[in-house]
Amino acid sequence: SGLPGQPLYTRLDGTSMAAAVAGGAAVLLREYLREGEGESAPPAALLKALLINGARPLDTTAAAGFGLLDLAGTVLALKEDAFRYVVKERGLGEKEQAAYEVTVQDSSAPLRITLCWTDPPAPPGAGPALVNDLDLVVEGPDGRRHLGNDFEERGLPDRLNNVEQVRISQPVPGRYRITVSGAKVSGEHYRQAYALVYGQPPDRDQVEYLVGGEVKLTSGRVLQLPQVVKAVLNGRLVAPPEQALGSGTDVYITPGGGRLYAVSEQRSLAPARFLDTAMGVVVTAEAQEDQDGGYLLRVASVRARGKDGPPADVPSGVRITAKINPSKQVVWEAGADWEEKEGFLEALTADGLRLINGTSYQLAPGYVVARETDPAGLDVLDRVFGPPGSLAELPSGIPVTLRLDPQTHCVLHIAVRQELISGFVREVTEDGLLLEDGRAFAIFPGAQVLRGAVAETPEHLSPGEYIVGTVLAGRAELLQIQVHTGILYGQVLFAGAGGKMLQLQDQTGNYRLLEVAPEAGFFRGAGNLGPTALGSGQWVRLLLNTEGRVVRVDLAGGARQVTGRVRDRSPERWLVDVGGTTCRVSPATMITKNGYPVALGDIQPG
């Protein structure tokens, strides 16, 4: 995955993390040198010189360093003899020189020469710390003279570092002379060993699309497929190679364009969905056990059941096939497919699902059950989170929509169609129930009020209590009412200890430190994303048990901030106009004035 979400991993950046990655790359490179190049004991200076010479430059200035590590490009350059190297164990004494030559034929590929040596330890407190100083000079067929690490072309030799490099982005075809000299080598009989790597690395690009034998690359270059193409799909060599040359494929092209190496990745997820996040649309598995953060979608349109359209039009619980760029883990192309069936549930067991019409279906591993309702019936704050709470046991006769895997025809997703309302009780009357936001509902005769596992009558409802009601289809009449005494809304200040503790500022402005129960779920819609989906600054709805521990966390789908002066407000209609934007307000909305909680009517225009 290219995003946070896998609980077994932590995402960090910095030199400490880079050291581990570079160390792993050095081990793999050493293995290749031993097995592929016959180097029984490759020295550290050679490993360092090869990795630096194969790195992709990030900038032309010295401040950017030698570039981004590219182990694949380095190994391919060695395999194709595009890189040559010299290990001089005897080394050079002071004022001594050694000369090498390299011939360039392809001027479109950059020429890189890297010199590296393992310097002896300097005395404590020495400055500069360099003991032995070697110089790298490259002279081209055009007469130009290039000094090591003189990337800004000031004409000055490097006197501080034990790595020197010359980069020529557009080399003139012809013969180049490379000179390594001992500018300062301590001790009368001492000599400094070194490693020198030189050559033209393969060109790295991504495939935009493939038409016939012609490849369009993201750099704008159009390439005719060379005769030699080696392609890897999901870690396996494939033939014919065209099947691994889809959009987003990483390609390496050898100098002169004689060979092309392609690396691609394709994943199929089911049940899966397109999830809208602050970073963009993400392709992610819907089942909790398959959650790994997901893959960021690069394109604005996806192929769904044979038609192109926005990912927002694709429902949850489908099979998604994605072409993923292997180096950045970004989806370049995605398609979704599913079969859809509707009916009335007769029974749902571990063996499968049966509808009242007699049709039976097997359940896919990781299938998901979710409620689908018109958000207009929910409290304003609940609309960004979805229906509150979890589904109890599904009763017989309830209408469902089934999404089936088009490959196996097993059920991926069970959408329970319910008309739900949510809100805060203002008053219980003889005629029914009145909510704080002014909505009124009749109560069906015999309707139950569930407070946890305890069944009560509507007379036991109290003003201010938060309820979720099941409404009779097409009528404002409540069939069932659930009372939730432990509902909190707020913004996460800190989520720590692997999701076990949560610090929150709630809708009343109070700061709370809450313990999260081990069995708690972390939801965006129907998807349980796991504790790693929770981060500071997120808006959440929490469900607490009788012990005050969090048993469910719902994450807001897409919160945005509106800033401006209040133009008008209507406490009766629960509306406020901020800078020309009309916003709905819930009884649970946190409203503060000079840091103190107030009612909507206390906010004055201006």
Automatic annotation (TrEMBL):
It comes from the Bacteria. Gene3D superfamilies: 2.60.120.380, Peptidase S8/S53 domain. This is Peptidase S8/S53 domain-containing protein. Belongs to the peptidase S8 family. Residues 4-58 form the Peptidase S8/S53 domain. It comes from Ammonifex degensii. PANTHER family: CELL WALL-ASSOCIATED PROTEASE (PTHR43399:SF4), SUBTILISIN-RELATED (PTHR43399). GO terms for biological process: proteolysis. Pfam families: Peptidase_S8 (PF00082). GO terms for molecular function: serine-type endopeptidase activity.
